[in-house]
């Protein structure tokens, strides 16, 4: 491995949940990682396949999805740079439950699964960071399931999703980066319903819309809708 690539990998391991690692463990793990480019529409791993190595997104965008027996796609999550595609690949025992597909071409940092599991035995802070990330994603899934059963309104789902994104990005201004169709699938609603709700939120002064960028103007009001 060239020094320039190793330095890039080491820098990548200073982001996301890996920022919690000690310097010594980061150095060791860097030697068990490699950069892997992918194209738009490329499948990084597929539902039903044996568990794969964890992948940390560096550039581009990836959707995590499942498909019904009729081929209908359900988007579970949109992954942005600095996040693991699915930390669960460390622990799945009966094949992967989801598929990862490139939405925008980019690069992932592929980490050797065995090496990362060994690192976790010495890095409690990293384990906590991974559990925190997994719990945030699980909350979105729970909201989506509740919404599909009619327990959470469209307004509540959209508000909860916006607040979640703002928390993950640590910014009130969100760059959507994907089509409304993809976002709507992630929330379990139609594109038309999403468009109407975003327009309603903008008219109420809760958000500001500028093409594919949304700025949260009243987080408290959004929180009220999410919890209603």
From TrEMBL:
<dbReference type="Pfam" id="PF13545">
    <property type="entry name" value="HTH_Crp_2"/>
</dbReference>
<dbReference type="InterPro" id="IPR050397">
    <property type="entry name" value="Env_Response_Regulators"/>
</dbReference>
<dbReference type="InterPro" id="IPR036390">
    <property type="entry name" value="WH_DNA-bd_sf"/>
</dbReference>
<dbReference type="Pfam" id="PF00027">
    <property type="entry name" value="cNMP_binding"/>
</dbReference>
<keyword id="KW-0805">Transcription regulation</keyword>
<dbReference type="InterPro" id="IPR014710">
    <property type="entry name" value="RmlC-like_jellyroll"/>
</dbReference>
<feature type="domain" description="Cyclic nucleotide-binding">
    <location>
        <begin position="17"/>
        <end position="120"/>
    </location>
</feature>
<dbReference type="InterPro" id="IPR036388">
    <property type="entry name" value="WH-like_DNA-bd_sf"/>
</dbReference>
<dbReference type="GO" id="GO:0005829">
    <property type="term" value="C:cytosol"/>
</dbReference>
<keyword id="KW-0238">DNA-binding</keyword>
<dbReference type="GO" id="GO:0003677">
    <property type="term" value="F:DNA binding"/>
</dbReference>
<dbReference type="InterPro" id="IPR000595">
    <property type="entry name" value="cNMP-bd_dom"/>
</dbReference>
<feature type="domain" description="HTH crp-type">
    <location>
        <begin position="152"/>
        <end position="220"/>
    </location>
</feature>
<keyword id="KW-0804">Transcription</keyword>
<dbReference type="GO" id="GO:0003700">
    <property type="term" value="F:DNA-binding transcription factor activity"/>
</dbReference>
<dbReference type="InterPro" id="IPR018490">
    <property type="entry name" value="cNMP-bd_dom_sf"/>
</dbReference>
<protein>
    <submittedName>
        <fullName>Crp/Fnr family transcriptional regulator</fullName>
    </submittedName>
</protein>
<dbReference type="InterPro" id="IPR012318">
    <property type="entry name" value="HTH_CRP"/>
</dbReference>
